[in-house]
């Protein structure tokens, strides 16, 4: 059976991953809703994950896929913490618009 | 045993000083007694040690501990009681005891009575360190210590600003000499890997080469500069006349009898070094002769009783340096000792006069005091005869030997020295006549106050007076006890291969006596027969005015040294320091301004932060992957 990478081609995976990453970056830069920004971060993470998996298959090496599992676990933990912070922020200022968060001012 | 002797000698005056400085106020009159006893103990120890060394001919030596050690250069904290240091100790502690005793009356009622005796004891301690040190660095400790005590005691009445200025002047002028001393020590340490007198002496006895001789010449010159500062020779003599601001016993002890002879001591101690530098010895002789004439000529016209004595001290020190310069160390030492006797007597006598006059020091307002102060007058007369060089008083023998040596070595300097001696006779008799003869010229109030000083002041005067008379016996011409005694110290004993005592010597003696008589006669005809009184300051004209104003040396120093240094200081303060501080503060201000601008970027806007973050990462990536 032919390898799925060889059928589609590794460069397509790379392009897709770049596109996903850029979507994430621009989402972060231009959206002001904290939840949306969170989702954008997840998109970026997943674009990286996909690249890892693609190369892992390409090299016939399972190490990359092991990494991905770790990334997912860490991301899940991060989401839990991040959402908890968001909830607290919402309770305090009644909004999750990051433009209203000016307490980090130096 | 030896260590105990040295410790006792050193620590008793130090203990006295500490007691008096710390508890002076509580001790009251007791502090004078404690101080006098402390010096007396040192004197007794010295006498015992002196007889021991004189019999055994072996110096007492003790290294207390190793002070510092680098590679092959070691300095031990050691003391040495040999013939030379014991001789110095005898008159430092002996005259010191008398002057301490005298001061118990002289300083009575002073608010800082205890402190005065504390400083005086401290001085004696440092002087003992100076003369007993077994290496140059210990001597240097004493050297600096006596300088400090001199400073403290000149400015003892510190409420008078001009006294403080005199103290500062003494200290600063001495610093110039001290620098010379240090340079000399460094050169000797470099040459011999040691600063110990014995080690240096032994290395030199094994012979030297030409290059070392050159460096020894430089070291000798540097050490001579140190001696010039301490012993008030041209060009560093100006501090000594001003040092008369201190209480009179201080002038007697420090600025006449002991401290100022430290320069002679140093050169005599290092005679084996100076003997290798004949050019430097020439310089020493010339400086000494010129100083003696120069200071004597200033002394001719001074009206302040202590100023006359101060210039006389400078002049006599000049004669001693002349002797040292001719390599006649034992003769210089002889004059140091006789000078210590009669000059201490003169200063204490003038102190007694000042005491009776209620602080008046101007001779124009004195006169006729012989009727009121018999003891002071008698001792003063004896000391005047001694310093003027009348036989058989002590000064005659020592001064005559110096002039004889000068005659054999350098007739030009002999003439200078003889002129200085004639001047000495003149100004000393002028002083005597103006103070003790004819009628009293002060106010009626002062006249009623006139009295002879108490016994505690006159007894030291009598003792010193007697010593001024008989002091000459220690080195009679032809059969000198002193020369034999000092033989182990002086390597090339010039006086021992002395010329036979013949006609020339008797002629020279006669010339010296005639010189003294001329000085006496001139003073007698001017101040007794004609009854002249020195003019008021404004009426002085011509060369007399130049002399009266001390050749304007202070003014010249002011113009060419002090003023430029002040100007340099002002320049550094107003230009260099301002420029530096502006630069530093300018840099600070730039950073401050930039950070204020930078602060605005941190406005707490998370969106902006994120943008900056992404932008930064992009730039890094660009440089990492694309630009390279």
From TrEMBL, chain A:
Q: How does the record say this protein sits in the membrane? A: Multi-pass membrane protein
Q: Name one GO cellular component term.
A: NADH dehydrogenase complex
| Catalytic activity from the UniProt record | a quinone + NADH + 5 H(+)(in) = a quinol + NAD(+) + 4 H(+)(out)
EC number(s) on file: 7.1.1.-
| GO terms of biological process kind | ATP synthesis coupled electron transport
Where, per UniProt, does this protein localize?
Answer: Cell membrane; Membrane
One Pfam family from the record: Oxidored_q2
TM helices/strands, residue ranges: 12-30, 35-55, 67-90
Alphabetical UniProt keywords: Cell membrane, Membrane, NAD, Quinone, Translocase, Transmembrane, Transmembrane helix, Transport
Q: Name one GO molecular function term.
A: NADH dehydrogenase (quinone) (non-electrogenic) activity
Q: How does it assemble?
A: NDH-1 is composed of 14 different subunits. Subunits NuoA, H, J, K, L, M, N constitute the membrane sector of the complex.
Describe the family membership recorded for this protein in Swiss-Prot or TrEMBL.
Belongs to the complex I subunit 4L family.
Q: Which HAMAP family match?
A: NDH1_NuoK (MF_01456)
The protein's job, in short, is:
NDH-1 shuttles electrons from NADH, via FMN and iron-sulfur (Fe-S) centers, to quinones in the respiratory chain. The immediate electron acceptor for the enzyme in this species is believed to be a menaquinone. Couples the redox reaction to proton translocation (for every two electrons transferred, four hydrogen ions are translocated across the cytoplasmic membrane), and thus conserves the redox energy in a proton gradient. NDH-1 shuttles electrons from NADH, via FMN and iron-sulfur (Fe-S) centers, to quinones in the respiratory chain. The immediate electron acceptor for the enzyme in this species is believed to be ubiquinone. Couples the redox reaction to proton translocation (for every two electrons transferred, four hydrogen ions are translocated across the cytoplasmic membrane), and thus conserves the redox energy in a proton gradient.
**What's this protein's name?**
NADH-quinone oxidoreductase subunit K
TrEMBL record, chain B:
Main location per the UniProt record: membrane
**One example of a Gene Ontology biological process annotation:** ATP synthesis coupled electron transport
Question: Where is it localised?
Answer: Endomembrane system; Membrane
Record key words, sorted: Membrane, Transmembrane, Transmembrane helix
Q: Where are the transmembrane segments?
A: 34-52, 87-104, 116-134, 140-158, 179-200, 212-229, 250-268, 280-301, 308-326, 332-354, 375-393, 413-437, 458-476, 506-524, 606-626
Protein name (record): NADH dehydrogenase subunit L
State any single GO MF term: NADH dehydrogenase (ubiquinone) activity
Phylogenetic lineage: Bacteria, Pseudomonadati, Bacteroidota, Flavobacteriia, Flavobacteriales
Protein's UniProt keywords contain Amino-acid biosynthesis: no
- Kindly give the Pfam families that the UniProt entry links to this protein: Proton_antipo_M, Proton_antipo_N
What species does this protein belong to? Answer: Myroides indicus
Q: What positions does the domain NADH:quinone oxidoreductase/Mrp antiporter transmembrane occupy? A: 134-424
- Fetch the PANTHER family from UniProt: NADH-UBIQUINONE OXIDOREDUCTASE CHAIN 5
- Whether Cell wall biogenesis/degradation counts among this entry's keywords is no
Q: Name one GO cellular component term.
A: endomembrane system
The topology of this chain with respect to the membrane is:
Multi-pass membrane protein
Q: Where is the NADH-Ubiquinone oxidoreductase (complex I) chain 5 N-terminal domain?
A: 67-117
